Amino acid sequence: MKTKLIIIMGLVSLSVLTACSNNESVKEEPTTEQTQSEQVKPNNGVVSYHGKYLKLAENIDDLEKDAPIIVKVTKKSEKATVTKETKENLFPTDFYTMSEVQINNIEKDDTGKLKENTTIKVLEYSVEDVSVDGKEYDLTIDGYKNMEKGEEYTLFLEKNPEGDNYILSNAIISKFPVEEVAENELFLDDGEKAEGALDIEEIYQDVYQEVLTEYSE
Which UniProt keywords apply (predicted)? Predict the structure, then answer.
């Protein structure tokens, strides 16, 4: 049974999230309002915003059921987009990375449109090395770390209804390195979660072990 997981939304207005998903299992409701008391603070050069999810799949069965597409891919390239909307926000709250990936293997494709050895674009929830007042920061949602170029991943996806790209079907618990990666290297916060964030990373670790077992070659 799926457990309702609610994450407090501090301040985020990501275009990647507003165009995100019709999936009934994942609902994201970003807000653009930000009070002085809600100003986000960087932690070791990482600015991590809290997403708000009414439900997230917390095991591989629910993850597979809710994802119309499951593929193994290799990341080829990326293009970051960052918008600083207002002078009141020191750090940008509108950002995403569009990653181009090559499909190596198709585990599931309810759309019937994907082909192996072709490329697709996938929206990701972080941007690294953003210059703010002369310093560089990584911007992310709940510590999400983008795929690395040349590395292989198992992705749980759905088609973005708003564009010619694909989105993670279960928010940040949708992308898993094929080769097992150390726990402190899976997220941008290096295991130091922002104050007030629920432990999505712990759920991720549990699901990741299931994915490694289920989709190992």
Answer: Signal
Q: Are 167 and 144 in contact (CB under 8 A)?
A: no
**Any idea what DSSP says for residue 39?**
-
In a domain, residue 34? The reply is no
Is 29 part of any domain? Answer: no
Please tell me the least confidently modeled range out of 6-10, 108-112, 138-142: 6-10
Q: pLDDT value at position 190?
A: 59
Nearest to 204 by CA among 15, 216, 181: 181
Extract the tokens encoding 82: 């960052």
7: in domain: no
CA separation for the pair 150, 74 (Å, rounded): 6
**How confident is the model over 19-28, as pLDDT tens digits?**
344 444 454 4
SS3 label, residue 117: coil
Q: How far is CA 45 from CA 108, 157, 189, in A?
A: 38, 29, 9
In the structure encoding, which two tokens stand for residue 98, read together? Answer: 């569009």
Domain of residue 77, residue span: 46-215
pLDDT digits (tens, 9 = 90+) for 153-178: 999 999 999 889 999 999 999 999 99
Per the structure, the count of domains in the chain is: 1
